[in-house]
Amino acid sequence: MTVAWDDEGIVLRARRHGETALVVSAFTFEHGRHAGWIAGAAASRNRPLYEPGNRLQLHWQARLEDDLGRFTAEPIDAFAARVLDRPDRLAAMAAATALLETALAEREAHPTLYAGLLRLFATLAGDEHWRGFYLRFEALLLAETGFALDLERCAVTGRADQLAFVSPRTGRAVAQGAAPDYEDRLLPLPPCLLDASEPDAAAFAQGLQLTGHFLEKHVYHPIDQALPPARQRLAQQSEEAKPLGSEAR
């Protein structure tokens, strides 16, 4: 007797298993982060299919539910190939896949997060602005792992307008001027986390600092890990991309 399912998923990681096989970790729509063994996947003609970021149709089969099991796969969308010549978008895709591989528990479905990832990758692979989508994806990841930012109203005044900061302790928004003696201790809140706007380079760097702070605090520090190297590189690149003396808007 065997167990099996069919689903679609985004490749998060692929590592060699023996001479020609790969163990592929994918983030699937109905089955969450799930791994499987794929025979012949490491061959040069097959390896590009399993680059992190690619969208696949997957069939998984195993003798027992808890076994590693075996994948067979067909391509749906080669997102990774479509960003290879755009380093900033490639860095964002690498950061997103690394976060999902390390932050999510195995075999727990997150359909809302999966839909957000698809929207992000379609944006990265196209010609639209992408930085706002990326920051909102990280905010969604925080929410899906149980640590949603509270950006509805000011924690001090209760106002819903002029929100400009976030408390690094509570994750709650703070309005401009509501806590003048503490503003230097608060994290700047980019407007793109409140609406669908596109951040400039400085605001994107601030947004990565904000979401990165809470990812470290609530997801990675409890398991004695740092943010994935790919996510650290994205933050470093965003800092280097800021115009000298720029201010976020």
Report on this structure.
There is one protein chain. This protein starts with a strand and ends in an 8-residue tail after the last helix. The mean pLDDT is 95. The strands form 2 sheets. The chain has a 5-stranded antiparallel beta sheet with strand order 3-2-1-4-5. Strands 7-6-8 form a 3-stranded antiparallel beta sheet, covered by helices on one side. By secondary structure, it is of the alpha+beta class. It has 2 domains: 3-78, Nucleic acid-binding proteins (OB fold (Dihydrolipoamide Acetyltransferase, E2P)), CATH 2.40.50.140; 82-151 and 189-241, Up-down Bundle (de novo design (two linked rop proteins)). It has 5 helices and 8 strands, in the order E-E-E-E-E-H-H-H-E-E-E-H-H. Strand 2 (21-28) and strand 3 (32-38) form a beta hairpin.
Mean pLDDT: 95
Instruction: Count up the helices.
Output: 5
The chain-level structural class is alpha+beta
Strand order of the largest sheet: 3-2-1-4-5
Broad CATH class of the largest domain: Mainly Alpha
Report strand %.
15-25%
Number of strands: 8
H/E element sequence: EEEEEHHHEEEHH
CATH architecture designation of the largest domain: Up-down Bundle
**Euclidean distance between termini CA atoms:** 59 Å
Radius of gyration, CA atoms, in whole angstroms? 20 Å
| CATH topology type of the largest domain | de novo design (two linked rop proteins)
Please bin the fraction of helical residues.
Answer: 25-40%
Sequence stretches where pLDDT stays below 50 over 5 or more residues:
none
